[in-house]
Design brief:
Blueprint (H helix, E strand, L loop, with lengths): L1 H30 L1 H13 L3 H15 L2 E2 L4 E2 L4 E2 L5 E2 L4 E2 L4 E2 L2 E3 L4 E2 L4 E2 L25 E3 L4 E2 L4 E2 L8 E2 L4 E2 L7 E4 L4 E5 L2
Parallel strand pairs: 1-4, 2-5, 3-6, 4-7, 5-8, 6-9, 7-10, 8-11, 9-12, 11-13, 12-14, 13-15
Antiparallel strand pairs: 15-16
Helix pairs in contact: 1-2, 1-3
Length: 193
């Protein structure tokens, strides 16, 4: 019975999200997806409670390449890139800022986590040009299956499966499978297996 109610709620909120998705598509034609997407994501982040979770999940299911119907995306969480991918049973806490990321099954993201695209969004080589006008890179970040990223972490590299990132850690290089990493910059302190 509980699963049936969840399915009904998903369909109901899909209908609520459809006008927003249509607005997003129209705006994308005018100014491009990369410019229109963050605004819609910011708007969706403002809806509190379980209804907000259902609304965000429905919209991202329409707009992302992949978004599972059983993921949890908390209040205040903003996606900056429309190419994100969210697999089954992913949990994302409140007030996160997430770029172009691919999250595998059961990935768990604490609150206030920032996942940036490798920290290369702005080059700074040309001292005569403003940093905001210089080129940059946005490589996809991969978060492995059953990885856990603690509150207030900053992630700029891939996280392996079943890895754990300590709260407030700053990940600047890839973390291998089953590793536990903490600190700034995050260092592997031991393996889980």
């Amino acid at each position: 019975m509980k699963e049936m109610i969840k399915k009904i709620m998903n369909v109901l909120f899909l209908l609520f999200a459809l006008p927003l998705f249509i607005l997003y598509q129209i705006e994308s034609l005018l100014i491009g997806k990369e410019k229109s997407f963050p605004g819609i994501s910011q708007f969706l982040s403002l809806f509190a409670g379980l209804s907000g979770v259902y609304l965000r999940r429905a919209f991202y299911n329409l707009s992302f390449k992949k978004c599972s119907w059983d993921c949890y995306i908390g209040f205040g969480t903003i996606f900056s890139h429309p190419a994100a991918e969210i697999a089954r049973h992913v949990y994302i806490g409140t007030n996160c800022t997430i770029g172009d990321v691919s999250m595998a099954d059961y990935a768990t993201i604490g609150s206030n986590v920032d996942i940036m695209n490798r920290g290369k969004q702005h080059y700074s080589d040309d001292v005569n040009a403003p940093i905001q006008e210089q080129a940059g890179e946005y490589p996809k970040i991969f978060i492995g299956e059953d990885a856990w990223i603690g509150n207030s972490a900053v992630v700029m590299a891939n996280i392996g499966k079943k890895a754990i990132i300590g709260a407030a850690s700053v990940v600047v290089k890839d973390i291998e499978d089953y590793a536990i990493a903490v600190g700034n910059p995050a260092q592997v302190i031991r393996k889980r297996a």
